[in-house]
Amino acid sequence: MKKSTYILASILALLFLFGTNSVNAQEVEDDREFDYIKGSPKGPGKWGDLKPEWAECKNGRMQSPIDLPLLKVRFTSQPERTTYKPFNATLKNKGYISVQWKGDAGSRFINGTEYRLQQVHWHTPSEHTINGIRYDMELHMVHESPDVNVQNRTAVVGFLYQIDPTDPCHPDPFLSMLNASISSVIGKKDAEVHLGVINPNDIQSGSLSYYRYMGSLTTPPCTEGVIWTVNTKVKTVSRSQIDLLKEAVLCYAEENARPLQPRNNRDIFLYYSRF
């Protein structure tokens, strides 16, 4: 082979190699179905256009999250019963960090209906706001009713967290138990870690008051009919724990809070009860 021909062939081979890698990198990035980037073609403003089954994200009238002002107050004569219990769980990196129980981790009872705990996950910053104040983090406890005849089968309990400005190193105890496992899935989308037995009661705050309203899932398909319970007590999280949650996920999900949605004259109640 002539030297000039060899050089040309080498250049073409390099171009092919880099071109192929570039396409593959783009395919990996585009593998995500949605993101939280403002102005992105897959961002929150476009979720309802990405799939027909996600249309509720733009057409729904009872979407979440929302701002929670003190509009109406309803007092409860009976505390809501919970029967949470320890069970085996797995930590997953799904573009956000979640803990999923592999069996019966107990239930929450709302108006006499049982809602079984499925998983918890975190959003940074918070998705809900209270009187216009957004916090550093929000934890969601997701429950499902086993009764297929129940109209609203999903119930989510939300807890808000903030970094204590006087002690930014003060950690959340529940997250502290997961630090090593979260560190092991940094940047590894779809990675899983078996945690062993995790007790959901370690999340509870013992607050006497919480907001309740009817809303939706805060990620596609944005399904409505979700019973939302948002605790009014703001818990403490350390700056390093927030940083770890952000570091663990891919860059498009470092801030994975959906923008606030219109309230549309929905009833919002503030309950006083002991969990």
UniProtKB/TrEMBL annotation:
<dbReference type="InterPro" id="IPR001148">
    <property type="entry name" value="CA_dom"/>
</dbReference>
<feature type="signal peptide">
    <location>
        <begin position="1"/>
        <end position="25"/>
    </location>
</feature>
<keyword id="KW-0732">Signal</keyword>
<keyword id="KW-0479">Metal-binding</keyword>
<feature type="domain" description="Alpha-carbonic anhydrase">
    <location>
        <begin position="32"/>
        <end position="272"/>
    </location>
</feature>
<dbReference type="InterPro" id="IPR036398">
    <property type="entry name" value="CA_dom_sf"/>
</dbReference>
<keyword id="KW-0456">Lyase</keyword>
<dbReference type="GO" id="GO:0006730">
    <property type="term" value="P:one-carbon metabolic process"/>
</dbReference>
<protein>
    <recommendedName>
        <fullName>Carbonic anhydrase</fullName>
        <ecNumber>4.2.1.1</ecNumber>
    </recommendedName>
</protein>
<keyword id="KW-0862">Zinc</keyword>
<dbReference type="Pfam" id="PF00194">
    <property type="entry name" value="Carb_anhydrase"/>
</dbReference>
<dbReference type="InterPro" id="IPR041891">
    <property type="entry name" value="Alpha_CA_prokaryot-like"/>
</dbReference>
<dbReference type="InterPro" id="IPR023561">
    <property type="entry name" value="Carbonic_anhydrase_a-class"/>
</dbReference>
<dbReference type="GO" id="GO:0008270">
    <property type="term" value="F:zinc ion binding"/>
</dbReference>
<dbReference type="InterPro" id="IPR018338">
    <property type="entry name" value="Carbonic_anhydrase_a-class_CS"/>
</dbReference>
<comment type="similarity">
    <text>Belongs to the alpha-carbonic anhydrase family.</text>
</comment>
<comment type="function">
    <text>Reversible hydration of carbon dioxide.</text>
</comment>
<dbReference type="GO" id="GO:0004089">
    <property type="term" value="F:carbonate dehydratase activity"/>
</dbReference>
